[in-house]
From TrEMBL:
Residues 25-248 form the MacB-like periplasmic core domain. The chain crosses the membrane at residues 20-46, 275-301, 322-346, 377-396. Residues 281-400 form the ABC3 transporter permease C-terminal domain. This is ABC transporter permease. The lineage of its organism: Bacteria, Pseudomonadati, Bacteroidota, Cytophagia, Cytophagales. It comes from the Bacteria. PANTHER family: LIPOPROTEIN-RELEASING SYSTEM TRANSMEMBRANE PROTEIN LOLE.
Length: 408
């Protein structure tokens, strides 16, 4: 039998009377439980928001992207393209040319981000779920079309059903003298708009998709020049292993980046916010656990006679110390267990029933997304353990010193 644990349980579960110490212990349990529940729920919401952003980016960006280490464009020979496409795990490789351009439609104009994609882009089916008007067509019967973001459509008042008004794209010609009075100083392309897509992310509001060949003519790219090479992977492929293989193949002048690495600022901001929220809630749990400190301190005074009896029976200071440390652990871990269960239950209810919504009809999802991760639960338990040790150590040490003082 573990004597310190047995005595600690007897102190905790004693029903002989409900003293102020007992109510203080219950209050400490409640504080730790509420703090633990809040920590589980808030961290899960941050995880859900992170996954939601990944889903948003997945509608436009590829699993892996090859881009130049310096500058905007690079040259990729057909032999390199073939090698990349033949790598195990590569489902689709799309050549891309991207740059800013001036867009005109009727009497309106705005600056847009033109993205030229080759014929393999349609195999990725990324825009299927975000098309809000028209069709996802870039080339048909020898005619070229553009697909625009909702923001571009609103800025230019574009009507995809109107075949008589083309979208005009202009880009400065580097080989000619730039002058606002000379139309010949700009390369121009005119395309009809076939469709409109909407993605719940402001950095895609200015996007215009056009065929790669049209983009090369507009931006002045050679047939082997690209801004990016976008790779969609076969499901189940080891993304990091394939990234390392591609990096070796393309050399140091090019970078192979995952979808997360293409959006480092957003995910870094989410992780920093998550860190500060974790520290804040950990501090709240620590403040709530102060009640444990007071409860144990008063319990040491109440059990002074018991400590003396145990000392007379040969108990060592270490035994007394462990009794009160375990008493603090019972109080805190009981509250933490209840908090964990309540937090997981709330996350399940939010995921299943959407208890808390965004409060707007324009959001891509109706309710706050949540995702429980095991490492967050481990961090939560470790925080409770550290807080328990901090709040229980001094009263336990004081009880051991009281035994030593009684023997002198």
């Amino acid at each position: 039998m573990n004597l310190p644990a047995f005595i600690a349980r007897r102190y905790f579960f004693s029903r002989r009377k409900r003293s102020f110490i007992s109510w203080l212990s219950l209050l400490a349990m409640l504080g730790v439980g509420v703090g633990t529940m809040a920590l589980v729920v808030v961290l899960s919401v941050f995880n859900g928001m992170e996954e939601l952003n990944r889903q948003l980016f997945k509608s436009v960006e590829a699993d892996l992207t090859i881009r130049p280490a310096k500058g905007k464009r690079f040259e990729a020979k057909p032999a390199l393209i073939r090698q990349l496409r033949q790598l195990p795990g590569v489902r689709v490789l799309t050549g891309v040319a991207i740059d800013n351009a001036l867009a005109r439609y009727g009497d309106s104009q705005t600056v847009v981000r033109v993205k030229g994609v080759d014929s393999t882009y349609s195999q990725r089916h990324q825009l299927d779920s975000v098309m809000v008007e028209g069709r996802q067509v870039l080339t048909r019967n020898g005619y070229n079309f553009a697909i625009v973001a909702e923001g571009v459509r609103n800025n230019l008042t574009i009507t995809p059903e109107d075949p008589l008004t083309p979208l005009e794209l202009l880009f400065p010609d580097r080989n000619r003298k730039l002058s606002s009075l000379s139309p010949d100083a700009f390369r121009q392309q005119r395309l009809n708009v076939s469709g409109v897509f909407f993605i719940e992310a402001t950095n895609y509001d200015d996007l215009v998709l056009i065929p790669l060949q049209v983009a090369r003519e507009l931006l002045g790219y050679t047939p082997d020049e690209y801004t990016n090479l976008e790779i969609e992977l076969t499901p189940g492929t080891d993304e990091l292993a394939l990234q390392a293989t591609m990096q070796t193949l393309v050399g140091n002048n090019l970078q192979v980046r995952t979808r997360d690495e293409m959006n480092p600022d957003l995910f870094r901001a989410i992780r920093i916010e998550k860190l500060f929220v974790t520290l804040t809630l950990a501090f709240i749990i620590l403040v709530a656990s102060i009640n444990t400190f007071f409860s144990l301190s008063m319990l040491v005074l109440e059990k002074k006679a018991d400590i003396g009896i145990m000392g007379a029976m040969g108990a060592e200071p270490g035994l007394i110390r462990r009794i009160f440390l375990l008493e603090g652990a019972i109080i805190s871990l009981t509250g933490a267990t209840v908090g964990l269960v309540a937090g997981l239950a709330l996350c399940y209810a939010q995921e299943r029933y959407g208890l808390v919504g965004f409060g707007t009809t324009s959001a891509i999802v109706d309710a706050y997304p949540v995702k429980v991760r095991s490492n967050d639960l481990i961090v939560t338990v470790l925080i409770v353990l550290v807080v328990t040790a901090l709040t229980s150590l001094f009263p336990a040490q004081r009880a051991a010193q009281q035994l030593v003082a009684a023997r002198k």
